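Q: My labmate handed me this sequence with no annotations at all. I'd like to see what the chain might look like in three dimensions before we decide whether it's worth expressing. Could you predict it?
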Amino acid sequence: MSTTMTPSVTRRRRGSGTERAQIRAGYGFLAPFLIVFALVMLAPVVYSIILSMFQTKLVGGTIFVGVDNFVAAFTDPQFLEGVGRVLLFLVVQVPVMLILALVAALAIDSARLHGASFFRLAIFLPYAVPAVVAVLMWGFMYGERFGLVGNINNAVGFDLITPFAPEWMLLSIGNIVTWQFIGYNMLIFFAALKAIPHELFEAAEIDGAGQFRIVTAIKLPAIRGSLVIATIFSIIGSFQLFNEPNILKTIVPNLIPTFYTPNMYAYNLAFLGQQQNYAATIAIIMGLLTAVIAYIVQLRGSRKDV
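A: Here is what I predict for the chain of 306 residues:
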């Protein structure tokens, strides 16, 4: 007794074979990215987690300690001081920088500013300066004996500005970071503003809305997504604070300790103190803290959009 397949069954089998071939082709295209992602992103994270679960001792060598390094980190006064310092930096510097960048973007977009192209380039230019060069330049200007600040103090006859005083050091670093990244954030806001349809502005003006009303009711709500993105980038940058204090430490070594920021602390533990396991623990904690805060900001921004 012979059986024959119906045309519909034949089409389904041919279709399933075609789908499998397409899936294999898709994985083939993805394979180079997945391999690079695994080697560059996943492998270092996994290795850091493994490192954080061990300790190297003079007697006994490297031993497994589980979460002991994490417990020690949360009771480490130097680490907690560094975390508190970057949190203060974030709370003060990030809003100031973003507000200044937003004001600059709104001014350039208003079409009422003469020489808008010049100001856009001038504000963005500091971002193109390498971080090391920028810090060295500002460090020279901050110098109380050889720099611009010293010249000003000599001219007035007393210490009018003391950026290298212990109580002003974090503010001095914040000034450098703000100078560097105002242009970057301004460009994000300006690009978002240029994407708003001009018909909305014309309709608002016909209804009698002034410029302030247009900004608050149309422009700011329209660029909320860009505000959230810039805020997240700034939060990540605050927790990654390293270049500025690490370079300024060579100028004023007595004012910036090795644990000034968590990144500096982890770097010095790993490369100067030969404590790679504890350094990996601090790096993981800071990565998780940064991810949690950035996720909260993104979630709140998404809810407002809805």
